[in-house]
Design a protein that fits this description.
Length: about 130
């Protein structure tokens, strides 16, 4: 008798190998997506911080009294100000929220201050 086909053990081994392979691929894909998401968030923050520093320079805003702990409105730049000046596009997406294609300009603030070495710093405060 000529038996052609696979035994139950062979089929179980193949299924186990496919399951292991799919788990490994799934874990690597998740890590890759997380890494890309972090990169997107970092680029978003940098774009807003750079735009805020340019805004302060362009408007000649005096931030000499602004420190890292300042709460003065003169030490803050809103996203809506950056949009109205054309420093960022109004359709920029906030990767920290579920709102795509729209930035919640009232809740996202960039703090501008002078550090102890009298160097201007712009730090994104909204969205985390």
């Amino acid at each position: 008798m000529n038996n052609k086909g696979f035994t139950l053990i062979e089929i179980i081994i193949v299924i186990a190998l496919l399951g292991t392979l799919s788990v490994v691929i799934g874990v690597n894909m998740t890590k890759s997506l997380d890494s890309q998401n972090e990169k997107t968030k970092k680029e978003y923050r940098q774009r807003l911080e750079n735009a805020a520093c340019i805004y302060v320079d362009h408007k000649n805003i005096d931030i000499s009294s602004c420190t890292i702990s300042s709460t003065s409105n003169n030490c803050k730049v809103s996203i809506s100000s950056l949009i109205s000046e054309g420093l960022i596009d109004k359709t920029i997406s906030n990767p920290y929220s579920e709102t795509k294609g729209k930035v919640e300009s009232d809740t996202n603030i960039i703090r501008v201050y002078m550090d102890s070495n009298k160097v201007k710093n712009c730090e994104y405060m909204g969205g985390d």
